[in-house]
């Protein structure tokens, strides 16, 4: 990415000297002799950094700074002052300047400051691009992903949501199975009818049947009045049975009957109740194995598994990490009223190299913690929870059996990069590969776009 820098200074020698120095560093540079002309240029061109003198005729540097902060949010402004006044510099920083330099200028110091400011600018632009991409992908309500596996799931959702078919959602804990269930209901003709959710694993076995099908007064100790069950409450809509693999055989039989006959009786009751309910289930268990070992009814499994949607773990769809991180930063920055604009490369590399055993839920908690801990407008590695930071004491990389050579190479590069805190030169040296090769590999993995 080539950056465009605007230099505003009323002294021709300084203005042109700065422009020449910055062009030698590889930047596109525009110049303006006063603040009014400079702001007019910024209003009609893409400007990534503004360098402005403070003491100028026509419009002062303070006025330029105030206007730039207001009209071009996210564009850093470096102010120049020939007076060396600490108070002036502090006032400029309070007004929103990225940093300041005093005249006569130290060009080495300027070069480093410009690089740092533009690195932050690049992070802001990346965050905005990801947020724009997120805005264009609202079809499935908070389901974020562009990996091949998730795009395939989106296509299945489009096809099955309008139907009455039962859907079984599989995947590890924390991958977002409930979001898939929400989308199935909200994209269906039943979207305005009840959507009842039941987490089967959270209910005691003795209470699950009553919770699902209701009970009559006196049906058991403590049943002091009639209670309508979740299936009855979901009539005309959908019911989501999370962790369906945890239910006992007696409840399995009653659910099978509801699917087949659309009828059931409350616990302790004789009245047959008719219901029209779309059943969506989810599990982190291998139900095929559960059927083989006799813990889950085969006939019920096939009834539930009319359409199957598998949500892969985050470690298998790391291409989705950039969009997820952008979404979580935006969410928690707003919630905590913090001006977080992005995440720096070192922290990005750590997120990308980590395996995320807790999946998207763990990533979400990680970003929430990082936003809370961040003291600047960019999340750094120091803001990340200690649990996901690379273990510098252990000189090994774990690669699962069955990993392809290409996947193993990718994992080795990313984990080594994370262990070296994002230092590409050190990583290339450690892996005995050229720096150009490392940069090419990182481009292939999309790491710079995280």
UniProtKB/TrEMBL annotation:
PROSITE patterns: RESPONSE_REGULATORY, SIGMA54_INTERACT_1, SIGMA54_INTERACT_2, SIGMA54_INTERACT_3, SIGMA54_INTERACT_4. GO terms for molecular function: ATP binding; sequence-specific DNA binding. Its main location: cytoplasm. Keywords: Activator, ATP-binding, Cytoplasm, DNA-binding, Nucleotide-binding, Phosphoprotein, Transcription, Transcription regulation, Two-component regulatory system. The keyword Transferase does not apply. GO terms for biological process: phosphorelay signal transduction system; regulation of DNA-templated transcription. GO terms for cellular component: cytoplasm. This is Sigma-54-dependent Fis family transcriptional regulator. It comes from Candidatus Avitreponema avistercoris. The lineage of its organism: Bacteria, Pseudomonadati, Spirochaetota, Spirochaetia, Spirochaetales.
